[in-house]
Amino acid sequence: xxxxxxxxxxxxxxxxxxxxSATSISTKDATLLPSLTALINxxxxxxxxxxxxxxxxxxxxxxxxxxxxxxDEVGKDGFIFVLTIQTPESEQKLIASASAKPFRELEHxxxxxxxxxxxxxxxxxxxxxxxxxxxxxxxxxAKSGDPTVAVDSLxxxxxxxxxxxxxxxxxxxxxxxxxxxxxxxALVKEMKNRVSAQGDQDVHLVITTMKxxxxxxxxxxxxxxTGERRxxxxxxxxxxxxxxxxxxxxx
Length: 251
Known about the structure:
Distance between the termini: 25 Å
Shape: globular
Largest sheet: 9 strands, mixed
Order of helices and strands: EEHHEEHEEHEHEHEHEE
Number of strands: 11
Low-confidence stretches: 107-114, 124-155
Structural class: alpha+beta
Number of helices: 7
Oligomer: single chain
């Protein structure tokens, strides 16, 4: 099932947001998944490589290894938003995408989509014998106070459905126009619609992202940093090292 929404932006032609399941996007047409994969990899390559003192990751870094990687990651219960813009030739150009799925912590040191580098950005249970510095450890204190108490107290300890945001990207040519914020709002609305069908009014959001790039952006949207892991120079080809943070929010 596909839902079509229209965004209005005075500086842009009409924007059309389409909602897909993993099944529907794979059967839409033969070019959509490869185009979506190319967009996501382009956005990650551009954003994750350029640091003020060197590249965070090599430019060849690919977020998705194959056109079906996103389908495998989102799974049967997740969803994918695709945003297109109408060109002067009246064609639809893919410019943004965002996805979400019910959260599942990786088992021990299970590889994410077969990539050790991608696994660095995934939450997972501690593996026996894995050095403590190489896995996420909860922060003792977040900027908004103790993260565990802060998250739980919002709903008095009620266990809420937990969803993870993945692959929230906007083409570099269309960034800084509020598109990412609109995509995020659409994600939250769709997640809340899905959990409300199960009798819940709120959803526990989680995201794992590069600290240097996105922590402040998500903090402005009410997320708290609840875990952090540091990777030094040389890991995954990084020239300067980087940190990966876990962030959470009740919406």
